[in-house]
Amino acid sequence: MQGSSNEFTGDADSVVQIGTMHGSINLTPLTRALPLPRQLPPPVGGFVNRAESLATLDRLLAAESGTGVLSAIAGPPGVGKTAFVVHWAHRVRDRFPDGDLYIDLGGYGPGARLSAGQALDSFLRALNVPKESIPATLAERASLFRSLVSGRRMLVVLDNAADTATVRPLLPASRGCFALITSRSSLSGLVTREGAARVTLDVLSASDAIELLGQVIGTARVTAEPQAAARVAELCGHLPLALRVVAERAIGRPQLALADLVAELEVEQHRLDSLASSEDELSDVRAAFSWSYRALSPELQRAFRLLGLHPGQEFSTEAALALLNSTDQRATQRLLDALSTTHLLQTVSAGRYRLHDLLRAYAKERLRAETSARDQALAVRRGLSWYLLTADTGRRAILPSSHEVPLVPREQLVIPVFDNAEAAMGWFEVERLNILAALDQATDTGQYDIAWKLPVVADGFFELHSYWMEWEKIHRTGAEAARVLGDRLGEASNLFALGDADWRGGRRESAIANYESAISYARQTDDTWLTGFSLRGLGLIHEEMSNREKAHNCFQAALEVFRAGGLRRGEGMTLLSLGEHAALLGHFDQAAQLGADAVRIFVEINDEWSQAWGTLPLARALKELGRGAEALELLARAAGTFDRFKDRRSLAMTLAALGDVHHRLGETSTAQTSWLSAAELYETFGDKAMGEELRAKAGEDG
Q: How far is CA 205 from CA 44, 50, 85, 230, 237, in A?
């Protein structure tokens, strides 16, 4: 992120620890161990029977296999596939001492499905792979994943898979692993090619459905009216989801006889018969849902309908506030809790909820029937605005000097406040998939202003946490949305980020084209930030291509833009670039002066990370001028900063530079230690060439 900064890259586990400097720096390599991921969601209460299907999985687990065991759990929506798999997985969890991985692939929910690459990214992070080390291609990610789980006993649950193509790269190829895949599809390809055992879940048997009903409303009521209980189960299609919804309402009416409940459900079914069809996924559950929905207060009905507009798999209380146009968190929390109690909403964790796919479909059906198109559009706008404004609040907490764009009116939206960058990064991580879903929703509903602004304010998070494919994708979407509007600022903002992405990916010509377009459009809108950083980006590419004169001209032009606009951090970063340019030409006095001027600016604006970053080229210049002691002191301080910021890549660069300075001072042993520690770091995030180069240096110095 040459435009904003490289802050917060890296992971929480540092490979080196840096103590107080007393003439040298002490480095202690750390050993990284594979963590034990435990990702299974909590089991569903009141699980009934499924004895035969559970026994099938038990037999599969007991069987010997040379390549691990696969089981595809198929069945219609609402039949309880996830509950079944999670229930069994918790029963056998102790058989997998190396951990369990779980991911909802979103094959049938709102928003875009998770790709195999996204799912592998999630698994690799859970297995403690540094984000810098996660490969770019799907094949490389799949290979690394298989290597990490090889020889281990792990359980892998792939929930809501839409097709076999998504599943195949996520399958472990280890004898000790067990993979469970749930899908509405039969996934026949996995059965024929990978030898997966198919377990098909049908609706509950009549006896199991009655048992579930009894667990919720009490066995006494069921025993007293067995025929009515059987008819309730039949009217719920013997589906666990519908049975729970109906049973929860029945609990609230303890004086209601089951025979009367049957009568009410039959009336409801008759009233709705005209809506049912052979292709209608709600046909078996609509009467049950409708009977419970119509018993809700108007306020709860409205809340249920509007929550169906959320674009993601799950949502927070704060996001619900926006959809419901409320500023009263306690009142909204009561609504969410009431819907959860009736099983019309599922509580995922404290303050987070989700709608089952069937309930979401029903909520949208009620929206079309009972809520005007205008009110629906306003609710969607509020939800999208909330994500945009909250993401921008996070941006300012993490990267206060990054690019600002005009937003949307805040109106009555309740926007969270982040006390620090760590809290903001935590929010982004939790909401990442919702941000992607919101971007899709903004595009689908023609809200192109939000569609170009959301990628810009979320840019730093996606880059800093190394979600490279998503980072590039959101900006391509943003640039296209801006083009639709004819918004030059929006197009320039996203093209600049695409220039960064192309540069990182080694696509220099494309990066140059994007930077040049960004400069042209930014000048039309008088955006000095974009103009300056795009010029600097061009200069950095020309420097790499040994076009020294072009590079210097770009840096000088960027410096003038930043100074004219009063953008101090941009000025400091460009001074660093000019200093490194001078060093390449052998002008080390000039390089040291420019580096010192840049660091002074970062101190004045209280930008600690940039101060540490500026130290690196300054220290290299000081080393060449024979001022090694000064360089060591600066580098030691920078190493401490990068270690604290968990910026492993910058820390590795600093350790390598420390080795060079110690070598110049004749401190052979300390130089070797620094180089070897840097090599170990580079190797953890996949830069084997740099690791080998540093190890060779250490060997030669020995």
A: 19, 9, 18, 11, 10
Q: Which amino acid makes up residue 118?
A: Q
Indicate the average pLDDT of the chain.
89
Q: How far apart are CA 350 and CA 355, in angstroms?
A: 15
Read off φ and ψ for residue 100, nearest 5 degrees. -135, 140
Structure tokens at 698: 């250490």
Q: What is the DSSP code string of 495-534?
A: HHHHHHHHHHTT-HHHHHHHHHHHHHHHHHTT-HHHHHHH
C-alpha to C-alpha distance for 29 and 368, rounded to whole angstroms = 61
* Secondary structure element (H or E) that encloses residue 315, with its range: strand 315-316
Check if the beta carbon of residue 428 is closer than 8 Å to that of residue 395. Answer: no
**Residue 214 per-residue DSSP state:** H
pTM: 0.88
Integer Cα distance of 638 and 618 in angstroms: 11
Burial class (CB in 10 A: 0-12, 13-18, 19+), 439: buried
CB 477 within 8 A of CB 451: yes
Q: How many CA atoms lie within 13 A of 585 on its CB side?
A: 17
SS3 call for 257? coil
Instruction: Name which of 420, 289, 291 is nearest 362 in CA terms.
Output: 289
pLDDT one-digit tens code per residue, 265-290 = 889 888 876 666 556 678 778 888 99
Q: What is the pLDDT of residues 497-543, one digit of tens each?
A: 999 999 988 999 999 999 999 999 999 999 999 999 999 999 999 99
Ordered strands of the 352-354 beta sheet = 315-316, 352-354, 346-349
Compute the average pLDDT of residues 232-246: 89
User: How many Cα neighbours within 13 Å face the side chain of 550?
Assistant: 12
What's the CA gap between 258 and 558, in Å, rounded? 77
